[in-house]
Amino acid sequence: MTELKMNKMKIAISGASGRMGHTLVEAILGDAETALVGALCIADDPSIGTDAASFLGRPSGVLIDSDLNKSLEKADYLIDFTRPEGTLKHLDYCAAHGIKMIIGTTGFDEEGKAAIVAAAKKTAIVFASNMSVGVNVTLKLLEMAARNLSAEYDIEIIESHHSHKVDAPSGTSLMMGETVANALGQNLSDVAVYAREGIIGERKKSSIGFSAIRGGDIVGDHTVLFAGIGERVEITHKSSSRSTYAQGSLRAARFLHDKKNGLYDMQDVLGLR
Predict the structure, then answer these.
(1) Which end of the chain is more exposed for a tag (fewer CB within 10 A), N or C?
(2) Model-wide pTM > 0.90
(3) CA 14 to CA 71: how far, in whole Å?
(4) Residue 90 contacts by C-beta under 8 Å, 6 or more apart in sequence?
(5) Which CATH number is 133-239 given?
(6) Is the peptide bond prior to 169 cis by the omega test (within 30 degrees of 0)?
(7) How is domain 3-127+242-269 classified at the CATH fold level?
């Protein structure tokens, strides 16, 4: 029996009352190698003081709290799928206390990303805009496609998410755009087109276009379209459940088991470098 199996991974989650929080709670409680030891929410959340697994109709013994000291005192890992301002607050605490982080939050500005890089000198972090194993395999396929189709094809990225998503384009769309741009030797910031309206003129051959759809309960659909003369190549990933993100997060936690510090992403976790 390995050390990992003998000693369960002690995991806390943030945003415990949200859709992703519920999915993470269920995944952790259903995994023989992990233990839920903390659940965070903002101070005015109505779930404060309730059991983190009450939505499952069974107790976890972990109460949702807004106090970092209480929620993280037993934790070796924090899984965070919240918003940048909350994640950065948690980041400071985890870096100071050696708690490893799995960050799936999107929408960071450059300053926020730099803070994550700095914190990774003190603790181990997996930071990825999408924790899905399938999405990260898709990124590898996009790299291959971009290198072979090159400049002869126009590239568009189309994504769809539920009506509650607050950022656009999605973090996954941006990851896909960066993957394609890097494969073509470009900087995404130089070639990305995020909006089109009115008389915009002909499409620039080097551009990478983004389109965002928001509606209903769509978990997350992403298509990268390579449009050439006489043919189109479409690479699509569709999520039907948030459980794929939760399982990817637990896989990331296992990857960090023997890491003291450093910044990693899901390509590292899956050995796709």
Answers:
(1) N
(2) no
(3) 9
(4) 14, 40, 68, 78, 80, 82, 101
(5) 3.30.360.10
(6) yes
(7) Rossmann fold (3.40.50)
Helices (H), the chain: 3-6, 19-29, 68-72, 84-97, 110-119, 133-149, 171-183, 188-191, 243-255, 266-269
Q: Read off the tokens for 74.
A: 């037993």
**Closest CA relative to residue 19, chosen from 167, 217, 170, 252:** 217
Instruction: Tokens for 148, please give them.
Output: 């072979």
Q: Which amino acid makes up residue 198?
A: G
Domain ranges (residues) in the chain: 3-127+242-269, 133-239
How close are the terminal C-alpha atoms of the chain, in Å?
29
By annotation, the residues acting in catalysis are 161, 165
19 CB contacts (<8 Å, ≥6 apart)? 242
Q: How does pLDDT run along the chain (273 residues), one tens digit per residue?
A: 344 445 899 999 999 999 999 999 999 999 999 999 999 999 999 999 999 999 999 999 999 999 999 999 999 999 999 999 999 999 999 999 999 999 999 889 999 999 999 999 999 999 998 899 999 999 999 999 999 997 789 999 999 999 999 999 998 999 999 999 999 999 999 999 999 999 999 999 899 999 999 999 999 999 999 999 999 999 999 999 889 999 999 999 999 999 999 999 999 999 987
| Alpha carbons 58 and 25: distance in angstroms, whole number | 12
Rounded-to-integer distance, Cα 191 and Cα 184, Å: 11
State how far the alpha carbon of 136 is from the alpha carbons of 62, 67, 175, 190, 269, in Å.
32, 34, 10, 24, 10
Rg of the chain on CA atoms, in Å: 20
